[in-house]
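Now for a typical sample entry:
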Amino acid sequence: MKAFEILAQLIEISNAPVEVDRRLKNLVDMVAQHFSLSLCALFLRDPQEGRLHLKSQSGRRPVFSPDLSFSTDEGPVGVCTGQKIPVFIPDNSQLPLLGGPLPRPLASFRFLAFFPIFDDISLYGVLALLANEPRQVSDEERNLFPVVCRQIAGTLRSSQVALESKKRIAELNTLHAIGVAISSTLDLGELLHRITLSSAKILQADGSILHFMDEDAGLMKVVSSFGVEEANLSLTPLALGEEMVGTVALTGEPIVLRETRTSHYSFQGIPPEISSLVCVPLISQSRTIGTLTLFSLRPEDREGKVFDEEDKNLLFTMASQVAIAIENAIIMHRAETLGKEKERNVRELFLLYEVSRSMLTTINLDRLLRIILLSITLGSRLGFDRAALFLVDEKEEVLRGMMGVGPADGEQAERWREKLERHSPFSPGWAIPEEMAETPYDNRIRRARIPLKEKHSLLIKTLREQRSFNIEDAHADPEVNPEILRWFGSRAFASVPLLAKGKAIGLIAVDNRISGRPITETDIGFLNLLANQAALAIENSRLYTNLQEINAQLLNTQNRLIQSEKLAALGEVVASIAHEIKNPLVSIGGFARRLERGMKENSAEKKYMRIVLKEVGRLENVLNQTLVYSRELPLPSSPQSVNRIIEESLSVLEGEFQDKNISITKELEPGLPPLVSDPQQVKQIFLNLFVNAIQAMERNGQLLVKTSAEKRGEEQFLRIEVGDTGGGIPQENLENIFNPFFTTKMDGTGLGLAITHKIITRYGGDVEVINRPGVGATFLIRFPLPPD
């Protein structure tokens, strides 16, 4: 009856709805109580270590240390586990011990009995019955204890099944969680971040590192990490077979290290305080594409995670999902990249087509340059933030800034883009918005001048070597001089040459000062394509402009030739008539003066005679100027000081200047080269200009006379300016002021400026009128000087 009660209680305890550890404790307590034992202890076997570990012991106060363990090969216990048979020791002080001595903690007991706990599947451990006094085991007890052990084995088996089920469910949940984490995005960067973050959290690791295989170089490179400070993370690539990561990548086999201090591996890029880690390969289509490493640290305030075989197997299973997800993301990334490249190529080709079409239909150079710069900046989402165009000026031997296009800030850039999207610069009749026409950037570029002989200038180097440059740090580049930094104001920029017929005619410089986007080699390639088109268009525009200028010059020369022929014929007639008129006019004047002297003062006759004399004098003046203009001027005779001739001319008219209270400002540069000329002819130039200025100005006017030397390329000129405050010349009269007999004065001959123009051109010079309506006019004269 007692056996049935024990079995009933045993079954009840085994099936109780409590934790397995509590059930095992109740079982050993029940066995110790029913069989009057000093102690009943349950030891479980660790097959990997080959040891028995204390799992539970009877009594309220533990007799054995909780971490008690001993080898399964040790003494009678080894016989019990090795042969799976019970071992009885009624009195260990009188009988020789089977299999050798007892483990030291058990040697103090007089009675010992060991029963193996096993079933058809596994050996789970040993049930130890211990008493302080010797005793015998009855036949009933011999038959009952194996039943108790089988019940305990069943309890352990069911708990293992439940534990394995929980682990399996946990693993499935883990795989599901990692699957959800990595399947919710195809963005490669985000996916790699999620892999390192999720894997570390799911396996309770302190950190993780993901390496990718660079198949071309045969190196493992860090692409993502979690839990590693940047200062401790080495980005140095690892060769296959190098360190633990390289070994896993080479062999394709995972590695788990419970304790890193006893390992022969080194761990580059992982914090030195790691305690345990596991590394698995990422294999896709039988090809290792990388590795995933999880590690735990050795903190002082808590027990660190120790990775085991289960963690390795779970992570290895996860790695297969991760590898597939990464492979899919890489494929998607490549597809997106390829799609973007194709889209970019289409846009670039379309842009090149639009630019080429516009260039073929646009001859105006300024508009053409504007279209070119807009097409590589705001005219396309592919464009740069700002662009500047420079052209070679061969006459002055400089690289001249022609135009700059670019907004001042991001807000203005977006506003400009919206305008250009509504009205494309390539559309017919497109007008440049006012805020795009003149900008501070454009003004800076237009003022730029770089001598073509400059040795240390990146822009000149672009022309000289006929190749593009991409400058990432302008401040550190010795070829970037301060002028370029001042014009661009950007840390990074690029320049490409404009090549036409194998010759560099200019360049285009671009930057991304607002967005900060790096300029790539792809950008440079596209810019070179556009620059080639632009160079041909600019060259064609220049040729067309030159052709127009030549045609205009030919037409002007033809008109002047016709006019000269007419004037020559007219001059002969005028000269002949003037000679015929001059002789009787001299007689009339002579007799009139004789009559005037004989008349009474204040008489009406004398008053009338003076009028006759005045008109005769005017006619003589007209005849003299007509004869001067009609006859050929003599060639220059000797070197003359222009400053001296100006001083003499001013002194001749000193009284006229004083009558009108006109102030004279003289800026005569000393040491000017002499002008080989006839001094009387040169004086005639200044007298005509000064008289015209006196007649044009009211009282208190201002006359400016300025001389200087001027150099254009290799040519030297003598520059003279004569300016007044006489209100300027009416616009409708400006084109005729040098024509003979054209005058706006009641008593003028219309020959003063015509004679002035004739003398100047006789010496190979030119005269230019700078007219300021409402203010005054300035006559700018240039005489060429012989080479030094």
